[in-house]
Structures are given as C-alpha cells and as structure tokens.
Amino acid sequence: MALVVCKFGGTSVGGTERLRAVAQRLVDRKLSGDRVVAVVSAMGDVTDELVALAQDVTHDPPEREMDMLLATGEQVTIALLAMAIHALGHKAISFTGPQVGIVTDSGHTKAKIQEVRADCVNDALDAGMIVIVAGFQGVTPDGQITTLGRGGSDTTAIAVAAGIGADVCEILTDVDGIYTADPRVVSVARKLDVVSYEEMLEMAATGAKVLQLRAVEFARNHGVVIHCRSSFNDMPGTIVREVDGSMEQAIISGVTHDTSEAKVTIRDVPDLPGVAAIVFARMADANVNVDMIVQNVSEQGMTDISFTTPKEDLVRAKHAAAEVVSELGARHWFVDESIAKVSLVGAGMKTHPGMAAKMFRTLADADVNLDMISTSSIRVSCVIDGDQVERAVRALHTSFGLDEDAVKAETSPAFLEGA
Ligand code: ASP
Ligand code: MG
C-alpha cells in the first residue's frame, strides 16, 4: 500500500468527460490498495478566461482581488471531481487550499508556501476517502486567499506530498514523461526513465515545460519523488529523484531550447568600476529578471553590455535601459527579440571534459553562429539566432547520441544474431 498524491493539470480535467475519466482512475488506484490524494488545476483554459475577464473590467486589477477571482477556477474542479467519484459509488471529499492549511506569504498572485498543515487530509484518508485538494491556492496567516503563480498546482501537489509524507507525487499531464528534447522539434526524441533533481532543475530552467521550476526545487528540498506521466494512459513516465553517485548515468540527458527571451544591448558605456553594478541595479529596481550577461572587450575606454531577459519583462527592461543610457552617458540601447537559447544538460559533464567543445563544433558544422554562452557544472547554454533553433536542437540531439535509433543500435542484440 502506497500513499500517493496525483496531480492533474487543466487539460486532463478540461471537460466533464475527462473529469469522469480522472475519477475512474483515482477509484482504480484506491481499489488497488493505495491511499490517494488528488490535486487538480482549473478546467481547461478557465484561468486564462478569468484573467481576461479581469482585464475587461480594468487594466490594473488589485492583486488581492485577482487572487479571489483566480482561486475560483480550482474550486469548481474539486467539487465536480468529488461528485464524479461519489457517482462511482466511492467516498471522496474536496478541500480548498485554505482548508488544508496551505499557508503562504502575502505575495498575492505569486505567493510562496511557508507551511502545509495537512491534518484534515490525513483524517479523511483514515476515514477511507479519496481526498481532493485545489491546486494553485493558499492562505496567509491572517486569512487572505493567495495564488502561487501560473502553473502553481504542481507546487501545491509537491507541497501536499511533502506535508503528508507521500511515497510519490505523480504529475499526470498531456505528455508521457520527460523527453531528451521537445518531441515536436525532434521526432526521434526519447522518453527518459529517470532524471536527477539537479538535471531536471536545469532542464526546467532552460525551456523544458513539463514541470514547473519551483515545484522541482520544492521537491528536491523536501526529497519528494516525482513521477511525471500521461493522464491518458497507464504507461510509466519519468521518475525525478535524487540519483546517487554509484549509479551509472548518461553523460548527456537532454537538449532543451527556449525562445521566450530577448536580448538587450547597451552600447558604449564607459568601462569604469561600478558601471555594471548600476546597469543591473536599475534592472533589478524595475523588476527585470536577467539571465545571461556578456560584457565586451573594451575599446578606447568604452564597452558594450548585453543581457537576456524574459520577453514578458521587456517593456520594463526598455524603460530601464533608456534611463541607464542617459544616466551613464552611453551611446544607445537596442533589443533583439529574435534570439533563442539552446542548452545541453547532463550530470556526466562533471566527469567528462570536452562536452562544451563538442557542442560548439556541432553547432559550427550546422552553420549556427553563437552569440552568447553560459555554463553551469552540468549545463552549457548558447544564445543563437531564433531562426536556427530547430536545426541546432536536432544537430545536438544527433551528435550526442540521443536519437532513438542511435540508442537502439547500441543496445540491440542484432549483432548476436549472426553469431
Ligand atoms: N490554473 C492555474 C494556471 O492555469 C494553475 C495551474 O494550472 O497549475 O496557471
Ligand atoms: Mg492551467
């Protein structure tokens, strides 16, 4: 008997038909002997529709009221799902985030979880019920409803799993696991059986969209094992957990890409101590997230500074860049919105030198020009022209031996047949 948390995203509960299928799946799980908690998102595009409704009323909704509004989406799903389970003749009870004691700070629309007091979940499980919890929402210590940021139901699920000491947190979604690359770009991408937290964090941070970055961080910090799998079939998906050093791991686990960033360049800033500090202090003040940074070799006391930032921060970044130019007497600033970032991720990089060199060679052979480079101990990322990103991802996937066929060839017993 296992204690499991199963999280279903918006697509998996996007309609009453699908809700009934989720109910059946939970009941089957219960009948197999497990203690079952479900965490669910708002149905389909409901959260987007609520955001649009608010925008119709005002362009600047108070964040507290935004949370009141958005939290309703998940509340619809939990009630309907509990009803669907009752209709199958089984016991279920739904709880909102505040009811299960998901306590957050007061950062409305992007609140952080501080504590999970899951007593009522344990009591309901002891009473033999399937427990259904609303994702994405919490409550401040003084009783205000909060939400956790878009996609936040993953974090709720992990937090609940940590809070009740679940054996596994299953994230059931519309893809069947974590792939070596986006299968829409690389048709020969493979599903991975196991990924370490460390690798998953790098993948999520560089464009893999299956799991929310914050949820993976939370899981690692609390040792929650994640099983990312399809909500539409029973196939095993990908396990994300601590991988101990004694296990043999692939050198490279995947190639990710991200087209959601833009590059801002400030030309001809004086090359003096403190200049970078001013540029990035202004960006931080404007709430602009900065990813990669490059400062050019200086020429005649002047230099260029470039950095990448999410496109959603770009309006603020442009204002801040204009201020920086006049404050520092720089020449001008400009933005390139057609960049892409391609990254190679793998824990084996720590012990296998030469991966970056091989990556650059592969990209050169594919005629892809590198604009910026950054690394961590298990990742190399390159900023390239957005038009070349698919070609770059495919070339890297092949050259690092990740293609489905390449792996089959290596492991297939075909060469024994002739023996
Ligand atoms: N319903 C929320 C959203 O769409 C939370 C979630 O789906 O995880 O962002
Ligand atoms: Mg959603």
Describe this structure in words.
- The chain has 419 residues and is α/β, with parallel strands linked by helices.
- The protein has three domains: 3-174, Acetylglutamate kinase-like (Carbamate kinase), CATH 3.40.1160.10; 263-336, VC0802-like (2-Layer Sandwich), CATH 3.30.2130.10; 339-418, VC0802-like (2-Layer Sandwich).
- The protein has 14 helices and 20 strands.
- Helix 6 (153-164) packs parallel to helix 8 (213-222) and helix 11 packs across helix 12.
- The protein is globular.
- The chain starts with a strand and ends with a helix.
- The model is unreliable at 412-419 (pLDDT under 50).
- Residues 10, 41-42, 47 line the site of magnesium ion.
Task: Explain briefly what this protein structure is.
A hairpin with an 8-residue loop joins β4 (102-104) and β5. This protein has 419 residues and is α/β, with parallel strands linked by helices. The protein contains 14 helices and 20 strands.
CATH architectural category of the largest domain: 3-Layer(aba) Sandwich
Radius of gyration: 24 Å
- SS element count, helices: 14
Strand order of the largest sheet: 3-6-2-1-9-11-12-10
Which bin fits the share of residues in helices?
25-40%
What is the CATH homology-level superfamily of the largest domain? Answer: Acetylglutamate kinase-like
Total individual domains: 3
Instruction: Characterize the main sheet.
Output: 8 strands, mixed
| Cofactors, ions, other ligands | aspartic acid, magnesium ion
| Poorly predicted spans | 412-419
Mean pLDDT: 94
Number of strands: 20
Given the helix and strand composition, which structural class is it?
alpha/beta
State the CATH class of the largest domain.
Alpha Beta
